[in-house]
Specification:
Elements lengths: L2 E7 L3 H14 L4 E3 L8 E6 L4 H13 L1 H6 L4 E5 H7 L1 H6 L5 E3 L7 H8 L6 E3 L22 E5 L1 E2 L10 H4 L4 E2 L2 H13 L4 E5 L18 H9 L6 E5 L8 H9 L6 E3 L7 H7 L5 H14 L4 E8 L6 H14 L3 E6 L17 H24 L5 E9 L5 E6 L4 E5 L9 E9 L3 E7 L2
Parallel strand pairs: 1-2, 1-3, 3-4, 4-5, 5-6, 7-10, 10-11, 12-13, 13-14, 17-19
Antiparallel strand pairs: 8-9, 15-16, 15-18, 16-17, 18-19
Helix pairs in contact: 13-14
The chain binds S-adenosylmethionine and iron/sulfur cluster (SF4).
Length: about 450
Amino acid sequence: MNKLLYIATFGCQMNDRDSEIMAQLLTKESYFPTDDIDAADAIIVNTCSIRGKAEQKAYSMLGSLRRRKKQNPQLIIAATGCVAQQEGEKMLARMPHVDIVIGPRLIYKLPELFAQASKRDKGFVATEQVSSFVIPPFLPSLDEGLPYKRFVTIMQGCNNYCTYCIVPYTRGREISRKVSDIVSEVEHLVAGGIKEVTLLGQNVNSYGNDQPKDVRTSFASLLRQVAAIDGLNRVRFTTSNPKDLSEELMQCFVDLDKLCTHFHLPVQAGSDAILKRMNRKYTVASYLEKVEKLREYCPEVSLTTDIIVGFPGETEDDFAATMDLMEKVRYHAAFSFKYSSRPPAKSCEFEETVTEEEKGRRLAIFQNRQKEISLERNNEYVGQEMELMIEGKSKVEGQWAGRSKSNHTVNFKSQDTFIPGQLVNVVIEEGCLNSLRAKLLVK
Ligand code: SAM
Ligand code: SF4
């Protein structure tokens, strides 16, 4: 008998992709996705622990399921993702109504664990960090409607141990997937109608570094193999630690038409002292040099970043240096966060010197100025022609929304009907804060 599965996904794109994999795996146990939590026979909460708030959200969602389990003891509740990995038995002790607590590396075991869940009278925890783990080849299901873009995970984990970051502890050491598995996954997606893929990893530039030197494939070379797949229109990737950004990768922007001209290059801070304490392994000068080089290779590149304010020890001068860096680079957009202490990440041992109130003040200053820059940047596109990949109807009545290669949402008016994934050409008429407005070009 078919059953219904509801998945709540928090956090990053790696989690989005893991949720897709879990949904597909569980079809083997006759579970099919639903958006209606009330109708669900099983609920998965795929958690994120990157900041304290994300962890609280995960616990609050899991807590809210207690009542449902009481009303329906047959309901299966699973917690996956980074909080599940980090908390393990502790989570089960706090949330005894949860049936399965399982780390991101073990999601492939879910069908087996679901089958056993109804026979157990106590929750089950699987969080061992298997180091010799090989990511199984996994071909996504293309059953749901008209897909046109997908994420493809190319590696798991991270070896960088930035001092504020919990990822190396929750997702383990870097493991690259086999080139042949990635290429056949993309070929399969393209055969099923997918037009755009985003290659995912915590630091895609170190793809392959866990392999012996003589058989290693670099990220740039993987990108070339993926871009060579006939029928694929666009390739994106995220994320890159600036310390590993190579000219070999920059050259890809010159050679590969399909490579989208957007680069997310998280800088985190604009002061060398703070970058050192963060263990980022680059300086402001070397970062700026890379940005300049990248712009030589790809003048039209749109640059975005991540920033943390209020890292332990961040003085007014350090923060001013971050503001200064932002003026120099003039990012198209930035994700900015208040520092959050994440045990067992190393920075938890550092004395917190910036109050919550002050973090809030610095964040607001940064965000307000970034808004102005984003608006200025977006207006630089006025008059330019752009190719858009249609995403669907815009939120505004009578308009369509597409995505540019620069990763901007672009809205335009048209009475015509378009299908997601279709390519159209527009000319930009106005830059808004988070999007562009354009006129359709009829060719
Ligand atoms: N791998 C990427 C890199 O190296 O830039 C970042 C991945 S992380 C999942 C996403 C962002 O969350 C980081 O770039 C950082 O700005 C932010 N972040 C991570 N840990 C944080 C913490 N403890 N407090 C606040 N923000 C944090
Ligand atoms: Fe976290 Fe640093 Fe790894 Fe990014 S590179 S996931 S910030 S440890």
